[in-house]
Design brief:
13 strands; 9 helices; alpha/beta; binds S-adenosylmethionine; 8-stranded mixed beta sheet; 3-stranded antiparallel beta sheet; about 325 residues; Rossmann fold
Amino acid sequence: MSLAIPSKPANKRSEASITPPSVQHELERSLLADKAYTSPKYLYDAVGSVLFDAICEIPEYYPTRTEAGIFQQYMSEIAHAIGPHSTLIDLGAGNCRKAARLFPLLHPNQYVPIDISIKYLEDAVQRLQQRFPYIEMTALGLDFSQPWTLPNEICSDKRLFFYPGSSIGNFEPSQAKTFLHHLRSECHSDGGLLIGIDLIKDHTTLVHAYDDALGVTAAFNLNLLRHINQILGADFNVHQWRHHALFNTTHSRIEMHLEARTAHTVTWDNAHRHFLAGEKIHTENSYKYSLESFLSLLESAGFGQAQYWTDSENWFAVVYAKAL
Ligand SMILES: C[S@@+](CC[C@H](N)C(=O)[O-])C[C@H]1O[C@@H](n2cnc3c(N)ncnc32)[C@H](O)[C@@H]1O
């Protein structure tokens, strides 16, 4: 197993997170915007990754178990469509469990998990390499919301991008198209994309998935403030914020926000931001697609010959599209 991480300057605020000045500037800009927002990538530090794993276990969060059910039911069909011996590139791999379930049927020649939460990824891949010593594994710690290309050590034959969990929904649709187009450009015509898509459904089910009774998603969202404190040396007080999730019908997306309980000022370095009571920081979008709209997005990004599999309620879809 090898691990390639982007170079990172020493930073007294955080040993564990990627904090080059460009990251601090991006975060600062978004916090100082008229309507404060942050990229969903900041939800993932070591604690955020663990909390996301917990979210996947709660009853309200149907995407993980529904997607797993589709894979279980149709795995041999999916494996037949893809064929063996690909270079399996796992985008936002997290604990790598979803890809590991594919290994026995896909027999990848190389496994390339990519994640911004580097320490978490490193630990997961070390464990996985012990279970599958015969698969070459190259973990990449990178932020794929910034321009990126795969390094030369990644085999260029039969690249299969694996993007489960409907994480594509975190991108605005136009950004999603650019991202998919980039994936297409990173594989030859023997490559493809295996992706999980959360489909439009009743709004109560959607909102509960992002606002569960135990408050696990609330903790995941609030942990962002601790992460920002580490990156910027800011003084966000988690107690002064509450989690808020809603479905925006105009944009067909779940939105997560953090809402200030009281008026207060947050400071870091030479900057500060005053928040009014009830003012929000927009922390995540999760776009929900119809199958038709997603298939046409894939086509417009240069993929062809899509095959798809859904659950009995049409809540979620797994799509395999070959590069044209
Ligand atoms: C919703 S979780 C999905 C985890 C796992 N693939 C699954 O389907 O359960 C999103 C994953 O993508 C990673 N991630 C989020 N934004 C990223 C970015 N900009 N670049 C690289 N990884 C990112 C997170 O650290 C996290 O592991």
